Amino acid sequence: MIKTQRFHAVTLAACVLVFAVSSRPTQAWDASFADVAEVIQTRCMSCHDSETRAGEIDLTPLLQKNNSSYGKYTKLWIKLENKVARGEMPPPEEDPLKPSEIESIKNWFQKSFVLRKGKPHIGRTPLRRLTRYEFENTLEDVLSIKLKIPYRDAITDRIDISQIESIVPSDIPGESGFDNDALHMEQLKPPLNDLANAVHYALAEFSKDLIARKSVLGRADIPPDAAAAEIQQVISKFLMRAYRGSREQLDEYTDVYYNLYQKHVQISKDNNASLRYALEMILISPEFLYRFEESKNLDAPYPVTGLELATRLSYFLWSTTPDAELLQLGRDGSLLQDEVLKSQVARMLNSPKRIALSENFAGQWLGFGDLLSNREYLSSERWNRETYDEVLFFVDELIKSDRSFLELIQSDWIYKRSSARGYQKIDPESVQNLYANIFASRESSTQDKRIRYDPPVLVKTQDDREGGIITSPAIMRLTASKDRTSPIRRGVWVLSTIIGKDLEPPPDVPSIEEAREALQVKENPSVAELIKQHISKSECIICHRSIDPLGLGLENFAPTGEWRTLYPDQTPVQSAGVMPNGKTFKTPREMKLLLLEMYQDDIANNFVEQMFAYALGRKSEPFDRLAIQRILGEVKQDGYKINTVIEQIVLSKQFRYRQDQ
Amino acid sequence: MRRNSYLIPRRSMLRGAGMSVALPLLDIMSPAISYAKPTETPPPRLCVLYKGCGVNPHAWDIVGGTETDFELSKILQPLAGVQDDILVVGNLDNEGSSSHLDAPTTFMSGTQRNRVNRYSFDQRIADQIESDTPIKSMQLTADNVWKQHPWLNILSYDKNDQPMRGQYDPQAVFNTMFKDESRTVRQKELLSVLDGVQEASSSLASRGSTRDQQVLEHYYDSIRDVEKSIQRARQNSRDVQLDKTTETFDPNIEVGNLGERIKAMLDLITLAFWTDSTRIVSCMLANTNSRVHYDFMGVNAEFHHVSHHVRNRQVLPAYDKINIWHAGQLRYLIDKMKSIREGSGTLFENSLIMWGSGIKHGDYHSLTDLPLILTGGAGGKLDLGRHVRYPQSQPYANLLLTIMRMMGTNAKSIGNSTEQLSGITEKANFKPTNRDDGSWRLVSNDEKTLTAKGLLRISIESDNEYYQLRFSDKSDLEIRIPYMNNHKLRFDRCVGKVVTVTGLYKTVEGKKTIVTLTKAELE
Alpha helix (H) ranges present in B299-375? Predict the structure, then answer.
C-alpha cells in the first residue's frame, strides 16, 4: 500500500515536471540546474574537487551543464544521487544536507536521468544474440534432438560437459552480471568458427535420428527425384522454425537457400547432404544467432509485434525458441493482450522447460553454476551434483509452487541429499515427478549403491541451522576456500549477492578482494576481537560493521557446509553476533531472520533488479526506476511471490516495447 | 578424485606390442616428428608466461653482485642450473590500475582493461610479422576458468581491443595443432557455408535498426577471421614431417590439477614452436586473483590468499613456496626447449620467453619494479646470464617495445613507452648504485617530526615487518608505520634504495622511531 502511494507521488511529480518543462522550458531547466550545481559546489567540493579527490571522486565535471544528462558522467551522477538519497553523504562528521538541498539533487536526477524530456522512456533496446546456453537449447528444439548431458542416475568419476559446451566457449558476463548482457555482447565478435562446428555436430546427430528428421522436415529423406517445389517447401518450413516463426522475406530467403542447395547438389549429387548444407547455413546465419526485431528507428517506446514478444518471453522463461502455441498467439496478435500474456506466463512456468530460470538465471546470480564448471570446487561427482541440485531444486520449488522469494533467506523446507538421515520428506512423489519431468532423459537405472545417484529430496528442516539457500553446502563451499572458511568472503557474498549492496572497496586498497583478505581473521576469532580490530580502522568500519556479523554468524559451517562447533585446531567456534542495528543472534536461523528484518526491502529490490536485468539482457538504469518501483509495489502486495515478479516484469513496458535511441 | 596424472596412455601407439605405457605428451610426440624445418635461420618465436599474484619482494630481489656475477634470490633458486640462460630485469615501472582484473592487461599492453588501445604486444607482433604458420597465435590458460570474471585470465587483445580468450583444454590445443590438418574437407565445406551465409544474409541490410547494422559488422568480421585462418592453414606448407601416427593418434590428454595442466601447456608450447605450428603464444599460468589451491604441490592454501602476506605474516612461507614452484615451471620449459635440436642450435636459442607478473608486491599490488625474467636466445639477440637493474626506473612499456622490435616489427610505441631499453640485447654496464657519500643522516627534527636520509632496508620477523634507514655512521633509524600509510605512499618500493623520509616520530628508550610517514623521496 505504501509503495503504491509512493508510486502515485512519483507519477504526480512527473506530471508536475511535464507541466513545468512545457510552460517555461529553458528557463526552468537552467534555474533547476543552477540549484543543483550550487549544492554540489557548496556542499561536496571541499572534499571532492580535483585537488583533494576524496575517495578518488572528483565532482568538478558535474558542475558543467553539458555533463548533466546521459553521457560520460552518468555513472558519477548515479553515484552522487545514490549516496545523497541514502544519506551516506556527506559523511557523519559533516552537517547533513538540508531537505531542500536533497530535493534539488533528486529533482535534477529525476528530470535528466529517470525521465527524458520530462517523459518516461525505456532506453535503447539492444540487439540480443543467443548465449551458448540459449544456443544449445534452441538447437535442441529446432532440430528436435538432445545435445545436453543427460541427467543420469549413475555416478561416474567425472563431471562431463556436453559436446556443444566443449566446442563453444562460455560467454563473458557483462555489467548486468549475466552472460546474456546484450550491451556487452554487442561489442564482441561471435565465435563463428566454434558455432559453425557446433552446428555441424548437431546436424550430424540430427541426420542419425529418423524421428527427429520426420518431425522437423516432415519426411525422413529427400528422394533423388524430389521436385523443386517440395524441397523449397522443406527449406521454407525450416526457415520459419529456425527464425522463430518469422515470415519476413520468407520467399526471398527460401529462394537464396534453395539456390545454394541446388549449386551444392550439382557437386555432391546427394540431396540429403545438400539439404544438410543448407540447414547448416541457416543455423549459423545472423537471423538465427541474433534476435532481430523490426525497427521503426524511434527515440520513444513503441510496442513490439506479437511474434517478437513470443520470442522475448520464451528466451526469458525457457532460454529457448518459442513453441507452437506461443508462435500461434504471437502471430495472431493475441499475445499482446494482458490476460493472454499472463496465462501464457502461467503455462510456461508449469512446463519443465522453466528449469532454465533456475539453471541459468539463479545459477549465474547465486553463482552455484560454478560447482559444475570450475575445477577448483570439484570434490567428487556425487558431492558436486548433490550440492548443485539442492540449490537448483530449491529455486525451482519456489517457482513450481509460487512461493515467496524471501524463502531464499529462510524457509522451513529445503532440498537435501537423499542419503541424509532423519528428515521428514515432503510430498516425495511430487519430487520424483519433478525430477522425471525436468530431466526426462535419464539413463538406465542401476541398483549398485556405490554408483547410484538419487536426486535430493524435499524435506522439512529439522534444526535452527538449515533453511533457505545461504546455509546450503553449495553456497558455504563457494564462499570458502578448500582449507578454511573466510567470514569476510561469506559476509561480502550475502551483502552483495543477496542484499544487493554495492560494496566498493575503500579507495586506498587496490580492490575489494584485498579488503576482504586483509581482514582475514585468524582461525578462531572472538567477535569482540574482530570488532575491536576493525574499529581501529575507520575506513573499514563503515562496511565491515555489516559484513562481519554475517560472515561470523556462518562460522559453524565448515568449508563444505557441515556443521562444526570446533575449528580444526580444537578451539571453539563462536558464531553469535550483533547486527548493525544492535540486535543479537545466537543461531544461523536467528541471523537469517534478523537479515530479513533489517534488509527485507533491499533484498526484494535486489531480487527484482537481478531478474529484470536477466529478462532484458542489460543492467537496470535510472530510467527503469519507475517500472521497478511499480513491480516492487505489486510484488509486496502479493506477499513477495516469485511468479508475481516474473509476471510483472513481463507486463512492464521495458519488456513489451522497444526504443531505438 | 585425483585419478589422472598428466600422462597419456601410449596405447594407441604401442597397441601392436601389447603394451600400455603412459608418457608425457612431449615424449610421446617426439618420435612422431621425424624432422623439423632445417632452414639456415630458424624463425623467432615469442612465448609470454604470466604468473599473477606478485611476489614477496624481499624473496625476489637479487641483492648485491654485479651484472654478470650475482647470486640468485630465494624465489629464483630453481633456475640455479640455468643462470647463464636467463636475464633478470629490475626497476621497470608500469602505470595505471593494478587491480586483479587490470593487471594482466596492463602487463600485456601498458593499458588498462577498460581503456581503448589495449591491443596487446604479442598480437601487435603477430599481426606485423604475418608468419605463414598454420596458427597465427595461440592463447592458453592454465588457471581455472572463473565464469563470473573471465577477464582475470585474459592476456591477449586483438587490434580491435577485443579480448582473446585462452584455451583451457590441452586436448583442444593439441587438436588445433595437429588434427586440423586432416580436416581439409571440413574446412573447404566451412568456407562454402560461410560464403553462402553471406550471400543469403545480404538482404538483411534493409531490416533492423541502424545500431543493429553496426552490431552485425562484428558478425561479418568474425566470418572474415575464420576465412583468413582457414586460408592460412591451407596455404601453409609446414616443413615439418609429421609421422603418419599423428593423424590417427588421439592422445586423450587428461589433466587433473594445475600442476599437470601447466606441464601439459608447456609441453604444447614446445611442440607448437618445434613444429612451427605457431610462433606467438601467451599463457596464463596463474591469474592475479587466483583461487587455485596449491595442495598438489604441498601448500594447503589458495595462491591469492597467501599473496596478501603483509597483514597476515604466517602465510609468507607458503607464498614463497608457491612462487619458487612457479620458477621451477619456467625451469622445466627451459630444459625442454634446450633439449630440442633446431638448425645448428636448439629450439631454446631461437625462442624468446618472457616470464613475469603484472604486479610486484603481492599485498600492496605495486606496479613498480615488476618481477621479470627474459630467457631463450631470441636468435642470438638476447644477452643472457645477467641481472640488469636500471639505476633509474624505466617505463615497463619500453621493454614491450624492445621485444616488439627484437621480434622483427618496426613498432614505434606501445602504452606509455618512450624508447627501446638499453641493456637487453647487450651488456648494460651500469655504475653501481647506493654509494654512501657520507650524507646519510638525520637531516632535521623538531618535537614531532623529523627528516632523514639513508639506505632503506627491511627487517622481516615472523609476526611483523619494519624498515630501517641506514645512516653513514652505520646506525639505523627504525620506521614502523601502519599498513595503509605504507600502502598509500607505496613505501615498500623504496627498499634497497637511498631515500629521504619525513614523518612523525616517537622516542622509545631514547631511540627515535618513525610512526607515520608523510613523505618519502627517492634520491
Answer: 303-307, 316-338
Q: What is the CATH number of domain B8-28+45-170+252-406?
A: 3.40.720.10
pLDDT tens profile A454-466: 888 899 998 888 9
| Rounded Cα distance, A211 and A218, in Å | 10
The DSSP H or E segment spanning A333 is: none
Please judge whether B100 and A513 are an interchain contact, meaning their C-beta atoms are less than 8 angstroms apart: yes
Q: Give the whole-angstrom CA distance, residue A245 versus residue A258.
A: 19
pLDDT digits (tens, 9 = 90+) for B98-113: 788 889 999 999 876 6
pLDDT, residue B121, reads 97
Instruction: Note whether A513 contacts B304, CB cutoff 8 Å.
Output: yes
* Contact assignment for A374 to B193 by CB distance below 8 Å: no
**Cβ–Cβ below 8 Å for A514 and B363:** yes
Residues of chain B with pLDDT under 50: 1-5, 8-22, 182, 239, 245
**What is the tens place of the pLDDT at every residue in B185-230?**
777 888 889 999 888 887 655 566 778 888 888 999 999 888 888 7
Right CATH number for B442-522 from 3.30.200.20, 3.20.20.10, 3.40.50.620, 2.40.50.140? 2.40.50.140
Is any Cβ of chain A less than 8 angstroms from the Cβ of B416? no
Does a cis peptide bond (omega within 30 degrees of 0) precede residue A90? Answer: yes
Q: Does any domain span residue A168?
A: yes
Q: Which residue has the cell 593494478?
A: B98
Residue B254, classed as helix, strand or coil, is coil
CB spacing of A191 vs B219 below 8 angstroms: no
pLDDT of residue A540: 64
First to last CA, chain B: 55
Q: Which of residues 418-477 of B touch A (CB under 8 A)?
A: none
What is the pLDDT, as a whole number, of residue B184? Answer: 64
How far apart are the CA of A285 and the nearest CA of chain B, in angstroms? 6
Chain B residues within an 8 Å CB radius of A366: none
Q: pLDDT category, A29, cuts 50, 70, 90?
A: low
Asked if the C-beta of B222 comes within 8 angstroms of chain A's C-beta atoms, the answer is yes
**Chain A to chain B, count of Cβ pairs less than 8 Å apart?**
189
